[in-house]
């Protein structure tokens, strides 16, 4: 049996980095006022990085007094210090680093062919820096789309945008988005956006991208024919990606018709024929954007609705493409309808599959459950248990949480839904409404109850808000 002492080896190598009297490499990184020199050992750099192995074996490296001198102006001192720590000690601490430095480390890892580090940084950005990514989508997209090894982060960005595009398309950086990235987004069927909003966003982007327009000339009433032709040229490859027949006739008249001159003639004529004669287009036959879950909720953002729809399809993950298009219609809201069981039953009975959302008064957490059978009970029936294997309960840390959401699927299908006229919703006596109270109990009929219903397990409370939505698919 071979005994391994990696910890002491890592510690010794780390000491070599901090006390490098026998170094034979000087690496200058950074530029302008942010330049720093690092001393290192060529053998260690060669062994750990294929990039340095190749670079030090070529004849174009410079030497002075038998010392290798190397310059990397495109890597900042902070980032390179993390790289050397990884190379020498196999350690990297990202917990206190801002997103810009972590993104810089990702780029440097790719350039220096540090595959293990690149994969770690990519995963860290996705799991721990999702909020920063959302605030800097354009920067991140423009960076990672240049890196072929960052497919995981590319997909994360695109799927996050598709799940909830509104913050992205209304950001100040959106008009500077690279044309190929915008094309890829508009082409996707799972982009969760109203088609009229997609058109508005495209026009906004096109105006900023077109010479002679933009901030200096954004008043359409002052445009001449050359301005319209220039905008048409900018939008030429994008216009066919707009599903014009999915735009309401009112929005088409108000938002699309004024830009008739920038739309290819055959596309505009087919759209007009659709609105006037209800004739389907013959050449522009893009499918409607599918897999989009839409909701008008005070408790959760649209991107969480996509996650719930994914759970309905048994896709346990965030931002997964959906097989169907989901519509969530509000049936009941306690703040406007009253927190009463009778009101709940009058509005929610016999409506088909339903989603329930609950918010505690003293927490940002959102709790809920999916009832695939619908609520059916009235006072003429005795209490009864309903069988289904598709029901589940869940929780989000807040209205936007996509990192720490919890789900518990039904554990005993015979006791999935309890129907009794004197109660509202009841998910296996685990999560239920009785009187004006919400109850959380660990009955064993649903999995993962302790995590889902934390920290209010085995207590009851008056909810701040309850929402129930009827679910339909197409």
Secondary structure: helix percent: 25-40%
How many structural domains in the coordinates? Answer: 3
> How many β strands by DSSP?
17
**From the alpha-carbon coordinates, what is the Rg to the nearest angstrom?**
29 Å
Give the overall pLDDT as a whole number. Answer: 89
* N- to C-terminal distance: 61 Å
The best one-word shape is flat
- Class inferred from helices and paired strands: alpha+beta
- Proportion of β residues? 15-25%
How many separate helices? 19
Low-pLDDT runs: none
Largest β-sheet summary: 7 strands, mixed
Strand order of the largest sheet: 5-6-17-7-8-10-11
Protein name: Serine-enriched protein
InterPro entries: BACK, BTB-POZ/Galectin-3-binding, BTB/POZ_dom, SKP1/BTB/POZ_sf, TLDc_dom
Domain BTB: 23-96
Pfam family, one: BACK
What does this structure look like?
The protein is of the alpha+beta class. It folds into 3 domains: 6-148, Potassium Channel Kv1.1, Chain A (2-Layer Sandwich); 166-277, Serine Threonine Protein Phosphatase 5, Tetratricopeptide repeat, CATH 1.25.40; 293-473, no CATH class. 38% of the residues lie in helices and 18% in strands. It has 19 helices and 17 strands. The protein has helices at 6-18, 42-48, 50-56, 77-89, 99-111, 115-128, 130-135, 137-144, 151-163, 166-169, 179-187, 195-209, 225-235, 249-256, 265-277, 302-312, 334-337, 341-348, 449-452, and strands at residues 25-31, 34-40, 62-64, 67-72, 293-294, 326-333, 354-359, 366-371, 384-386, 392-396, 406-409, 417-419, 423-427, 431-434, 437-440, 459-461, 465-473. The strands form 4 sheets. The protein has a 7-stranded mixed β-sheet with strand order 5-6-17-7-8-10-11. Strands 2-1-4-3 form a 4-stranded mixed β-sheet. A 4-stranded antiparallel β-sheet has the order 13-14-15-16. A hairpin with a 2-residue loop joins strand 3 (62-64) and strand 4 (67-72). It is flat and about 95 Å long. The mean pLDDT is 89. Residues 23-96 form the BTB domain. Residues 298-472 form the TLDc domain.
């Amino acid at each position: 049996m071979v005994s391994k002492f990696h910890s002491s080896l890592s510690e010794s190598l780390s000491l070599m980095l901090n006390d490098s009297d026998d170094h034979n490499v000087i690496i200058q990184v950074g530029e302008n006022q942010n330049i720093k020199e690092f001393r290192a050992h060529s053998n260690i750099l060669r062994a750990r990085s294929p990039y340095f192995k190749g670079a030090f074996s070529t004849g174009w490296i410079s030497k002075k007094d038998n010392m290798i001198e190397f310059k990397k102006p495109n890597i900042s001192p902070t980032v390179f210090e993390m790289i050397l720590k990884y190379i020498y000690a196999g350690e990297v601490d990202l917990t206190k680093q801002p997103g810009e430095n972590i993104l810089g480390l990702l780029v440097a890892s790719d350039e220096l062919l540090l595959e293990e580090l690149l994969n770690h940084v990519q995963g860290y950005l996705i799991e721990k820096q999702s909020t920063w990514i959302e605030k800097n989508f354009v920067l991140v997209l423009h960076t990672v789309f240049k890196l072929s090894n960052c497919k995981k982060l590319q997909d994360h960005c695109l799927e996050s945008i598709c799940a909830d595009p509104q913050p992205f398309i209304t950001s100040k950086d959106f008009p500077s988005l690279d044309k190929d990235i915008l094309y890829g987004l508009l082409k996707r069927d799972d982009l969760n956006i109203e088609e009229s909003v997609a058109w508005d966003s495209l026009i906004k982007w096109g105006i900023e991208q077109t010479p002679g327009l933009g901030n200096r000339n954004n008043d359409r009433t002052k445009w001449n024919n050359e301005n319209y032709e220039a905008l048409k040229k900018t939008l030429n490859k994008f216009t066919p990606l707009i599903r014009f027949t999915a735009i309401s006739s009112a929005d088409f008249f108000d938002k699309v018709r004024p830009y008739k001159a920038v739309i290819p003639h055959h596309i505009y004529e087919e759209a007009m024929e659709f609105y006037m004669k209800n004739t389907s287009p013959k050449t522009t036959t893009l499918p409607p954007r599918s897999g989009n879950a839409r909701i008008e909720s005070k408790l959760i953002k649209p991107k969480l609705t996509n996650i719930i729809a994914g759970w309905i399809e048994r896709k346990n993950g965030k931002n997964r493409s959906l097989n169907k298009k989901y519509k969530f219609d509000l049936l009941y809201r306690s703040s406007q309808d009253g927190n009463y069981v009778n009101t709940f039953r009058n509005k929610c009975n016999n409506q088909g599959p339903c989603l329930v959302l609950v918010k505690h008064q003293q927490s940002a957490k959102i709790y809920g459950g999916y009832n695939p059978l619908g609520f059916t009970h009235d006072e003429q029936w005795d209490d009864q248990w309903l069988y289904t294997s598709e029901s589940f309960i869940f929780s989000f840390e807040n209205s936007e949480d996509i990192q720490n959401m919890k789900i518990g699927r039904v554990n005993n299908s015979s006791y999935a839904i309890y129907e009794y006229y004197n109660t509202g919703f009841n998910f296996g006596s685990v999560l239920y409404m009785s009187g004006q109270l919400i109850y959380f109990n660990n009955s064993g009929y649903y999995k993962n109850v302790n995590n889902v219903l934390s920290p209010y397990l085995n207590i009851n409370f008056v909810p701040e808000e309850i929402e129930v939505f009827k679910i339909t698919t197409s």
